[in-house]
From TrEMBL:
Keywords: Signal. Residues 214-231 have a biased composition (Gly residues). Residues 190-251 are annotated as: Disordered. Residues 194-203, 232-246 have a biased composition (Basic and acidic residues). Residues 1-21 form the signal peptide. This is DUF4412 domain-containing protein. The lineage of its organism: Bacteria, Pseudomonadati, Bacteroidota, Flavobacteriia, Flavobacteriales.
Length: 259
């Protein structure tokens, strides 16, 4: 009798493993992990994908709230930024110390409590409702509470634990390509505070003009024209010297979500 029971149990586990390891790609209904002070969780339920991003890091919270979060979806696993949801889409003015300061912000208990109170007030009463959906060459603004797309996005803040959570739910048919329904290679990118290319160009021109006036315009800087690679966690775009210390502590990473 015991041998029969063991055989049944073994058969069950073998079936489960086969179901989730089809084609050599491990699949799951739930993906969890962490990167750059952010814990993430992806779940698949009734045709929807839900992404949760949580952090207790004060600077990361400031970046998420001030500049919004952009979430990218790439079904081919190539980290393409063709499909994305950004929320909120307008920078939010907050009267706190810059999140990219010299590690002097939020040192006192009074400053920390003030920050918590302001975040709680912002998230619960004053937070904007407009988001942006990008589908390849098209862009569409929508309200996260009232829309016909089936997309919802919201921020939660646990003041006692100082935990900020962003939750995005999107129908899978919004991100799939044509009739394909294969999410086995899905990669999700998370980004905040993306540098403005026009402002960076203006800054580079000003810098070059300054160097030319000093007789150094013909010499090239030590860094190349482009940043590092795109795989895994990426640096937030800060450069040594200049305004690097004043730049927001943005997050910028990709992770596998094979569903």
């Amino acid at each position: 009798m015991k041998s029969i029971v063991c055989l049944i149990i073994l058969s069950f586990y073998t079936f489960s493993a086969t179901a989730y390891a089809e084609d050599g790609i491990i699949k799951s209904d739930t993906i969890v992990g962490s990167s750059e002070q952010v814990d993430y969780k992806v779940t698949q339920h009734q045709g929807n994908l839900t992404l949760q991003l949580s952090t207790r890091d004060n600077k990361t919270m400031m970046s998420m709230l001030r500049h919004g979060v952009t979430v990218f979806f790439d079904l081919k696993g190539k980290e393409k930024e063709d499909v994305a949801v950004t929320y909120p889409i307008q920078p939010i003015q907050m009267s706190m110390k810059p999140e990219g300061g010299r590690e002097v912000g939020f040192q006192s208990e009074a400053e920390i409590n003030q920050m918590k109170t302001q975040i709680n007030t912002l998230v619960t009463t004053d937070f904007p409702e407009e988001a942006l959906l990008k589908l390849y060459d098209s862009k569409e603004n929508f309200n996260v509470l009232l829309n016909g797309m089936g997309i919802s996005a919201t921020y939660f803040y646990n003041q006692k634990e100082n935990l900020l959570t962003y939750q995005l739910t999107i129908p899978q048919n919004k991100i799939k390509e044509k009739s394909k329904n294969d999410f086995s290679k899905l990669m999700i990118g998370v980004q905040t505070a993306k540098p403005d290319k026009s402002k960076r160009s203006e800054g580079s021109e000003d810098l070059n003009s300054s160097m030319s006036s000093r007789g150094g315009g013909n010499r090239q800087g030590g860094s190349g024209g482009r940043g590092g690679g795109r795989g895994g966690s990426r640096d937030g775009g800060q450069r040594p010297g200049g305004d690097a210390e004043k730049a927001p502590q943005g997050i910028d990473f990709w992770f596998e979500a094979h569903l």
